[in-house]
Amino acid sequence: MFGFLGPNGAGKTTTIGMLCTLVRPSGGAAYVAGHDIVGERDEVRRDIGLVFQDPTLDAYLTAEQNLRFHGELYGLPREAMNERIAQVLQMVDLADRKDDKVETFSGGMKPHRDHRSR
Ligand SMILES: Nc1ncnc2c1ncn2[C@@H]1O[C@H](COP(=O)(O)OP(=O)(O)OP(=O)(O)O)[C@@H](O)[C@H]1O
Ligand SMILES: [Mg+2]
Predict the structure, then answer these.
(1) ∠ CA 56-21-30 to the nearest 5 degrees?
(2) Is the CB of 8 under 6 A from ligand 1?
(3) Which of 12, 42, 70, 92 is the most exposed place for a label (fewest CB within 10 A)?
(4) pLDDT tens digit sequence for 90-102
(5) Average pLDDT over residues 61-84
(6) Same-domain status, 76 and 111
């Protein structure tokens, strides 16, 4: 676990935004897992996992449809998609709810900022 501390307005959010390639730095350089955050943005994105403060689920889609959508966004190869979706659903104990819309899920079943480890 890594704590990133500083006074209000010190630039923490900005720094994390740059390291996640969401904010373009006006100068300097930084590397994540050996990749330049400006020149190798896609490689950096592939190497990090980001949990957003707000849920990024589409409530009117099913659990499986949400995973498929994000898999497509991340460029997961078609032939790997079904297996990976099944693995993730298994991992979070939601395989039996894969065809249910996310709006029917309880808070703890959705990954968001209040998500407890399960
Ligand atoms: N390296 C920098 N040089 C100049 N301005 C910066 C730099 N980093 C951040 N800023 C500016 O400083 C302001 C505060 O930055 P930021 O929101 O990242 O701070 P923070 O540490 O997250 O603050 P808080 O603790 O209040 O959330 C923003 O307007 C941002 O654009
Ligand atoms: Mg901040």
Answers:
(1) 145
(2) yes
(3) 42
(4) 999 999 999 999 9
(5) 93
(6) yes
